[in-house]
Amino acid sequence: MLSVVIPATDAPPTLGRCLAALGRSTEPHEVVVVADPPGAGPAAARNAGVARTSGDVVVFVDADVEVHPDALRRLRETFECAVAPDAVFGAYDDRPAVTAVVSRFRNLLHHHVHAGAGGPATTFWAGLGAVRREAFVAAGGFDAERYPRPCIEDIELGMRLHAAGRRIVLDPAVRGTHLKRWTLASMLRTDLTARGAPWVALRLERGGAGGGALNLAWGQRLAAACAVLATAAALGGRGRLALAALAAMLAPNAGFYVLLARLGGPRLALGGVPLHLVHHLTAAASVPAGVVLWARRSRP
After folding, report:
1. Of 1, 89, 107, 270, which sits 20 to 30 A from 279 (CA to CA)?
2. Tens-digit pLDDT profile for residues 8-49
């Protein structure tokens, strides 16, 4: 039995579309929507939802995700394998609902990272992910006290599951359409304060665990360093060095730009360059910000 838990304490306008998509699945499942208390963070909402479910496997779906009709079936089949994992998470598809450049870029970037990283994982993603109830309860659920607002509560749970010897798998074939509308400001805020800096602080706290996961792979770290170099060189009037560093930033992400060009033509591919530069600069800024956050938490 699959139990779907949807955190919806912020009255999300996309909840109806999320539920309608689940209704198109032929896989038997129950759905628990957690709407109270208003304003509660997703970690607390998901924990409360799990307590109200009865399934062997809990499927977490964000309220701004439309799962594909076969997503639940794929999850069930994975958990029924002879050597089944304890947790599985999927990916956004390549057709995000909002077609504005910033939204399309940010959602397709997430899709590209997950689509190219299938297999064993050391973290977890709760946008569309499932965990065996027994493993979830044994791990203590999401850390709602530490993460009262949307943050890296799913990543932290995945790290605890992995440290406990639980097996986690990323299956890019388990897909959903992301309905979120991004702005440049919301992208920067999320990448820095809700994801990047907390992740750096968590890795320092856990001794570097999860260092090569997803967008922390070495290719992306190199791209972030090149973005910093390109910006510094441009500000210093060193045009050739700036262009060389920019080219080095783009090289590890060539497949991503092919994806942007295929789906959105030259406009999206070219528009993705400055957005990707900003994304990598934000990632670089997350390092000192995360160190400061870790130091504050480490004080007696």
Report:
1. 89
2. 999 999 999 999 999 999 899 999 999 999 999 999 999 999
2: alpha, beta or left, given left = phi > 0 and alpha = psi -120 to 50?
Answer: beta
Give the chain's largest Cα–Cα span: 63
Question: pLDDT tens for residues 154-197?
Answer: 999 999 999 999 999 999 999 999 999 999 999 999 999 999 99
Where b means 16+ CB within 10 Å and e means fewer, 249-269 reads bbebbeebbebbeebbeeebb
Residue 2: strand pairing partners: 29, 57
Could you tell me the pTM of the whole model? 0.94
Assign 85 to helix, strand or coil.
Answer: coil
Tens digit of pLDDT for each residue in 230-277? Answer: 999 999 999 999 999 999 999 988 999 999 999 999 999 999 999 999
In the chain the domains, ranked by start, together with CATH numbers, are 2-181 (3.90.550.10), 214-298 (no CATH)
Show the tokens assigned to 50: 């799990």
Instruction: Compute the distance between CA of residue 207 and CA of residue 133 in angstroms, rounded to an integer.
Output: 28
